[in-house]
Write a structure and sequence with these properties.
The complex is a heterodimer. Chain A is α+β, with helices and mostly antiparallel strands. Helices cover 52% and strands 10% of the residues of chain A. Chain A has 15 helices and seven strands. The longest helix of chain A is centred in the first third of the chain and has 18 residues. In chain A, 40% of the residues are buried. Chain B is α+β, with helices and mostly antiparallel strands. Chain B contains three helices and five strands, in the order ββββαααβ. Classes of the chains: A alpha+beta, B alpha+beta. Chains A and B meet through helix 1 of A and strand 2, strand 3, strand 4, helix 1 and helix 3 of B.
Chain lengths: 317, 98
């Protein structure tokens, strides 16, 4: 009598948030549901089905939460060496019977404060929402606004949807009281997001501290280079390689340009078996990389000048 | 003894189906159940206030199906749900006749 209807992704995401909250509570871990569910709850984006559930875990609790998920059949998604080096803020957990993934974050890009401190600041301001009948912790509205802004600013070229959501965020915040807008800025200052989120914060009509000059905070320089390069993969890869010791950079750069067949096929599962399709796909990827060079150079120029890109605000994306 | 939905379940309810995740037994039952059709109709009536017979009566009245068939399906489904730990039996008195 159990139905044959498939599990809808929207239902799955709600259930996964309930699952995450339940498992975290069992081991005394602290988690916040972020992005989709939380943004919709706070009226920061229109309702749409998310492809995954994003859960931010207090860094010391990460292993306990992932271990709990593994007990329930969830496993870390196989990823290439390049993906591992580019994604330094979360891991993706999957389960063969579920249509959605779980992105388990231990930090969130753009918050440049110490990861544990940033989480604790957001945790202290937490609210609750109900997902699949279970109480789930989420950031408060100011926290959710900052997360949404940073998410949209970080990779503007990935999807025009980010630009649309960013404009909606600006419109929603324009309706807020001055106290609410000032609170968002204060939170950004406290969590190290005032420079990274500056293009958004400037729309709030609240005085901001002077921008941090280039060369003071390497993480901020990386952010500026990435954002001004529209978040293209080439810029991300270059930034990741620069984090390495000088003697490891040549091998890392070569691996970015010409990854192993295993890694290439993990990142490009659409490539059919055989050497011919593989070679064609490799050269197509190289071509895309070469076309990204102007954006990468622009990003590096902006970072050297200490400028945080604002083209998304101008509707250029 | 009235059947009632077990405590601690996660669920997403719609007009014509419900998705239920057995959080208390999540290690063994790792994915959710989707109840639709007759399963949904029975599940929706398992609230601790109705006896099994009352659930059957309501379903017969709502669908016009043969009581014997509805009673058998309801009994089998409840047995499955009890086995999965999705349903427990409570001591609540049945609702007075309306």
């Amino acid at each position: 009598m159990v139905g044959t209807r498939g599990l809808a992704i929207r239902d799955a995401v709600a259930l996964v948030h309930a699952l995450g909250a339940n498992l975290a509570a069992r081991v005394g871990a602290r988690t916040l549901a972020i992005k989709g569910a939380s943004a919709e709850h706070h009226g920061l984006r229109v309702e749409r089905a998310s492809a995954d559930a994003d859960i931010w875990v207090r860094p010391p609790d990460l292993e306990r939460v992932t271990a709990q998920l593994c007990e329930c059949g969830w496993v870390r998604r196989e990823e290439s060496q390049n993906t591992s080096s580019l994604v330094a803020h979360s891991i993706t957990i999957v389960h063969g019977s579920w249509p959605c993934d779980i992105d388990v974050h231990w930090t969130f890009p753009g918050f440049l404060g110490e990861a544990g401190y940033v989480f604790d600041v957001l945790w202290e301001r937490r609210q609750t929402m109900t997902q699949a009948g279970v109480e789930v912790f989420i950031p408060d509205r100011a926290g959710a606004v900052l997360i949404s802004a940073l998410h949209a600013l970080r990779t503007p070229v990935q999807t025009p949807r980010h630009a649309e959501e960013f404009r909606m965020l600006v419109d929603v915040c324009a309706e807020m009281s001055e106290a609410e807008r000032r609170d968002i800025v204060d939170l950004a200052i406290e969590t190290g997001a005032v420079d990274t989120a500056r293009p958004f914060l400037e729309t709030l009509r609240v005085p901001l501290p002077e921008p941090t000059p280039p060369g003071v905070n390497p993480a901020l320089d990386e952010w500026r280079a990435r954002v001004a390069a529209d978040g293209v993969v080439g810029a991300q890869a270059l930034i990741a390689a620069q984090r390495l010791a000088w003697y490891r950079r040549p091998a890392a750069m070569w691996h970015i340009v010409w990854p192993s067949e295993r890694d290439f096929r993990i990142d490009h599962p659409e490539v059919t078996p055989g050497r011919g399709p593989l070679l064609r796909a490799r050269f197509a990827r190289l071509g895309r990389g070469i076309r990204q060079v102007p954006a990468i150079l622009r990003g590096r120029r902006q970072a050297r000048r200490g400028i945080t890109e604002t083209s998304m605000l101008d509707g250029d994306t | 003894m009235n059947p009632t939905q077990a405590s601690g379940l996660a669920y997403v309810a719609h007009d014509d189906y419900v998705v239920v995740l057995n959080l208390p037994r999540i290690e063994e039952q790792q994915s959710p159940y989707v109840f639709e059709g007759a399963a949904f109709e029975i599940w929706s009536r398992i609230d601790g206030t109705r006896t099994e017979d009352q659930i059957v009566d309501e379903l017969v009245e709502a669908t016009g199906a043969e009581r014997e068939v509805v009673a058998r399906d309801t009994r089998d489904f409840l047995a499955t749900l009890r086995g999965l730990g999705l349903v427990e039996d409570t001591q609540h008195a049945p609702l007075p006749p309306q």
